[in-house]
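W.,

You were right to be curious about this one. When I first looked at the sequence I had no strong expectations either way, so I just let the prediction run and decided to look at it fresh. Below is the sequence, 207 residues in total, followed by the output.
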Amino acid sequence: MKIIPTLALAGALCVSLQAVAQDRMPLPAMSELNEVQRQAAQDIINGPRKALYGPFIPLLRSPELLDRSSKMGEYLRYKSAIGNKLSELVILIVARHWTQQVEWYLHQPIALKVGIKQEVIDAIADGRTPTGLSEDEQIVYDFSTEINTNKGVSDVTYQKAKTRFGDTGVIDMLGVNGYYTFLAIVMNGTRTANPDTKVTPLKAFGQ
C-alpha cells in the first residue's frame, strides 16, 4: 500500500503496488479506472486527507460507496463531538480489535501526536488494559472496548458517556467505532498491504 498524492503519480506507483502478492485489490492501473472512479479518487485527494491511500484503494471498486463513506469519515475523524484526540483513541481500539495493520500504521503516530501516551498505545497494542488514562479517555476506552468486545454497552458505561459527552457525543463515538470497523473489514477482507515497518505491526492475539 502506498499513499498516492496525485492521480498522475498513482500510475507510476501502480507496478510496485501490484507486486504485493497478498494484496487482493491493489491500486488499479489508471487505464482501468472509469470516469466515476477517477472523480471519486480525485475528491479524496482534494479533501482533508490530501492523498489516496489505505482503504480508499480497494473502495475504488465501488466509487459511490467510496464517495459516501469517505464523507462520513471526514466528519467522524476531523469534526466529531468527542474531538480528535479521543477519536484517535477509538481508532486504535478498533484497529487492535481487528488486528488491522494499515489502520494501526496510519493512526498510531497521529494518536501519539495528539496526546495519547505511548504507554497507553503500547498497552492497547499488547491487548492489555491501559493505566493512567484521563477521565475522558477512560470513558471512551471503556465504552469502545465494551461495544467491540461485548457487542453492547452496559448501563453504567453508557450513562457515564452520556453525562460527559451528551447524546451527540455518544452517537459520534459509536459512529467512529462503526466507521473504522467498516474500514477494518474492507482492508482485512481485501488484504490491503501494510506500507512498511516504520510502525511496529500488531501481533495476532495469542502470539
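Here's what jumped out at me. The chain has a mean pLDDT of 89. And, maybe more interesting for your project: The chain has two domains: 7-77, 80-190.

Coffee later to discuss?

I.
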